[in-house]
Amino acid sequence: MIKSTRIRVGRNLKEFPLGPAITKEQRNQIEQKVVQACNSFDGELKGTFYSLSSMTAAQQEQLIADHFLFKEGDRFLEACGLNRNWPEGRGIFHNNEKTFLVWVNEED
Q: Distance between CA 80 and CA 60 in Å, rounded?
């Protein structure tokens, strides 16, 4: 019996370069656009966006316990410049049932 499945889709938003070439301002613009989109979800997709730069310690602990939180420190992400300006412009959205997750500015 399958209890859960993970499907990962990575892409970049039109008009923005991929992570290694993005500026701090562009990363913040992407976060704003994705938050706006996520806030429009309703029904089973309705949920909460957590910005890494403003989340509380309790929120961070819960997201780690849920195995949702991505972290700084990956040597490959560091080598290509993806950890610049950490944690600004990054965040995580999940629906209320915790079955749908959106990472913002993790790798893509």
A: 25
Nearest Cα to Cα of residue 77 among 87, 68, 63, 67: 87
Contact 69, 98 (CB under 8 A): no
Compute the distance between CA of residue 35 and CA of residue 73 in angstroms, rounded to an integer: 24
Each residue's pLDDT expressed in tens, for the chain with a length of 108 residues: 887 777 777 777 889 998 889 999 999 999 999 999 999 999 999 999 999 999 999 998 899 888 888 777 778 888 888 888 989 999 999 999 999 999 898 876
Q: Residue ranges of the alpha helices (H) in the chain?
A: 24-39, 57-65, 75-79
Amino acid at 74: D
Quick check: is 35 in a domain?
Answer: yes
What is the extent of the structural domain holding 49?
Answer: 19-104
User: Domain total for the chain?
Assistant: 1
- For the record, the structure tokens of 82 come out as 């993806």
CATH number of the domain where residue 87 is located: 3.30.590.10
